[in-house]
Amino acid sequence: MQNDPQPTDLGDVRVANRAVVLRHVRVHAPCSRADIAARTGLNKATVSSLVGELIERRLVRETGLTENRIGRPATMLVLDGEPYAALGLQVGADELAAVAVDLGGNRLLTWRRAFAAPAATPAETVRALAALARRATARVAGEGRAVLGLTVGVPGLVDAAGCVPLSPALGWRDVPLADQLRAALRDPDFTVAVDNEANLAALAEQRHGAQAGATDLVHLTGGAGIRAGAIVGGRLLRGSRGFAGEIGHLCLDPTGPACACGRSGCLEALVGLPAVVRRLLPDTAEDGPVTDFLPELDRLKALAGQDDPTVRAGLAETGRHLGHAVAVLADLLNPEAVLVGGHLATLGPWLLPADQAELAAGALAPEAGGCRLEASTLGGTAAALGGATAALATVESGRLPVR
C-alpha cells in the first residue's frame, strides 16, 4: 500500500525544485521563466511560484524584456542576492585570510593579516579568527547585507561537527573549533562551519578556477600542510568520517626528514613550505623559528630567477617528490586536472617541469590518464574563497534565508 505524501515530503520536494531553479538562473542568466521550465522539466506553474518566492526574498530579480524569440517578449531573470553575503576564513602558516562573496560568487572583500598560527595556541587562534570575522561582518552589514554563513578552512583533519582531531601543521589535537568560534562570536544568527582547507580550495576551483565546471579535479594545498581536496563525479570526496585527502602524510622516503606528524619522509616533510625553506635557506634558522614565510618565499623566487644552482636543484628535487605524489593521485582518482596552490603555485615555474615529468613517468595510465598538472590561478586565499562558497550552500540547496 502506498502512503500518501506527508507535508514534510512535499516541503522537501519544493526545496529541491527551488534549488534547481536557482542553479539554472545562476548558470544560464539572463533567462526567462519559460526557459527554466523547458530546460528543467518543471511545469510552468511550479516555476512561476518558485520564482515568485525567490524574487520576494531577493535571491532573483527581473531585468527587463527580450524580444529575440518567437511570441510575446519574455521577462528575463538574473541572480539578485544584493542583501546577502557569505564569509570564508582560512588559517595559513603565517597569516589569516577572509573573503566575502555575494550570491553570484563575486568578491566583496579580500583581507589578509599576519598571524603565526603554528606558534599560537588554539584559543589565541580562535580569538584572532573571531576578531577578523566580526570586522568582515561589520563591513558587509554596513553595505546593507546579511551574512548567510561562515566557513573556516584549516590545515588538518576536520570531522562533521567542525572539530579538529589532528593538525600536525598547527600542533592541534581535539580542538572543537566550530563550537569555540561560535561561542566567541556569541552564537550569531548565521551558520558557523569548519572544513579542511584543501576541500574548500577544491570547491573554489570547481566554481571559480581555471577548471570551473570540471567534474573530476584535485587541488593540492601549499603552505604549512600539504593536502588533497578532490572533486569526484562532481562532488567533494570526504570519506566515511570526512578525513579523505591526507596525502601530505604519504610516506615517500622512510629515511627522509622528520615530519610534524611524528613519522619520517612524509610528502609534507619534503615539499611543505617550512621544509623547503629549512632545506634551501638554512640561514633562516639563525634568527629562530620562522613565523613569516612571505619574505623567505620572495627570496626563493629571486634566487631561482637568478639561476642560483643550489636553489634551482633543490626546487627540481621538490618537484620530483611532488610529482611522485601526483602520480599516485592520478592512478587512484584519474582527475581531469590537479591544481597546486600556495607556495607550490608561487614556485611553479621551477617546480612544475620536474613535477610533470615525474607524473608522466610514474602514472600507470598512458599520458597520466589525461591528467593535467597546473598551478592554481586563485592565489593565496583559495580556501577562504571556497569557505565563502560553501557558506552559500544552504541557500543554493533551496532553503530560503531567514527574513
Annotation keywords:
403 residues; alpha/beta; five-stranded mixed sheet; 14 helices
Describe the overall structure.
This is ROK family protein. It comes from Micromonospora harpali. InterPro entries: ATPase_NBD, HTH_MarR-typ, ROK, WH-like_DNA-bd_sf, WH_DNA-bd_sf. Belongs to the ROK (NagC/XylR) family. Pfam families: MarR_2 (PF12802), ROK (PF00480). The chain is an alpha/beta fold and 403 residues long. The chain is built from 14 helices and 15 strands. It has a five-stranded mixed beta sheet. It has a five-stranded mixed beta sheet with strand order 13-12-11-14-15, with helices on both faces. Helix 2 packs across helix 3 (44-56). The radius of gyration is 23 Å and the shape is globular. It starts with 6 loop residues before the first helix and ends in a 7-residue tail after the last helix.
